[in-house]
């Protein structure tokens, strides 16, 4: 009886061992879609409070943890450039608040562009992009920059990414089945990562939240910033109680940076190059002042190396052109004519806009 039992048990073992092993998921088997449901991305506390401009998230590109991670990897991966020589991070470096610290940026093959790289700070709150405003979403901005600066070729990039198994899984986790790599998904992932790059923890932010105090010089600088008869900065660089980058109704301006006898005499047409409207010539996107202390050089062509030079320009260096913005109310005097003490106090205030934790945030660093 024991012998029969042993034979029966052994037979069961043999039959059991003949069954097929469970199929390893290579992305093609029909396992539940629920295994690839992404987790919603949670922004830092306070981001969507009334103090800040609302982050614009397209309905067809919701923010997810997996999408942001994929975008972060693509941001630092030179595989997206034609010859694998540069990545998005080549021009948007953490040490320069995700700008590049040079007057004019370099693109693939070491070619120089005609404009300065703006930093990536709170771009998710923005409605128009590039100095000339030619893009109205981060997705469009990414697609434009990839083709313009990196000579992006989807066919070549797709082949490179497919040779890295981690990307196959990441695209599936970020965007669901079938997990294919597409140009649109690359743009969307990069846009998600860039939207996640938020700076709301400067000394000024803490002051507005009641968590810090400004010095007397910093307070005086804030008053000068907001005084129509002093610095007169608020017309272009204020957006409610918190300084983001520009008033919604005034995103572009001719700030009297260059002299031009006629509207056709500007070296760089700026917004006019995109709109074709001659009156827009010489108008450029008003940049954020956040972390301004660390985003030198300044202006669309990086002509000013220091904040002191910028303040001097607005104080006494304004130049004539036919379409100088009317909100430059001290234009007829050549500038705001600040005293040396007032300039120093204004500088002290501008430095309170520095967020010490932004560029060093581990979530924004190179993942490789």
Mind explaining what this structure looks like?
Helices cover 33% and strands 1% of the residues. The longest helix is centred in the first third of the chain and has 16 residues, at 2-17. Helix 8 (216-226) crosses helix 12. The protein folds into two domains: 42-198, Cytochrome c-like domain (Cytochrome Bc1 Complex, Chain D, domain 2), CATH 1.10.760; 203-353, Cytochrome Bc1 Complex, Chain D, domain 2. It is built from twelve helices and two strands; from the N terminus they run αααααααααβαβαα. It has 368 residues and is an all-alpha fold. The model is unreliable at 1-31 (pLDDT under 50).
Features:
1% strand, 368 residues, mainly alpha, Cytochrome Bc1 Complex, Chain D, domain 2, 2 strands, 2 domains, 12 helices, disordered N terminus, 33% helix, globular, two-stranded antiparallel ribbon
How do the strands and helices of this protein lay out in sequence?
Blueprint: H1 2-17, H2 65-75, H3 138-150, H4 154-162, H5 165-175, H6 183-195, H7 203-208, H8 216-226, H9 234-237, E1 252-253, H10 271-275, E2 284-285, H11 307-316, H12 340-350
Antiparallel strand pairs: 1-2
Helix pairs in contact: 2-5, 2-6, 3-6, 8-12, 11-12
Q: Beta fraction of the residues?
A: under 5%
- CATH-level-4 superfamily name of the largest domain: Cytochrome c-like domain
Strand order of the largest sheet: 1-2
Number of strands: 2
Distance between the termini: 64 Å
Q: How many structural domains can be distinguished in the coordinates?
A: 2
Task: Tell me the quaternary state.
Answer: single chain
Number of helices: 12
Instruction: Tell me the major beta sheet.
Output: 2 strands, antiparallel
CATH architecture type of the largest domain: Orthogonal Bundle
The CATH top-level class label of the largest domain:
Mainly Alpha
Rg result: 26 Å
Structural class: mainly alpha
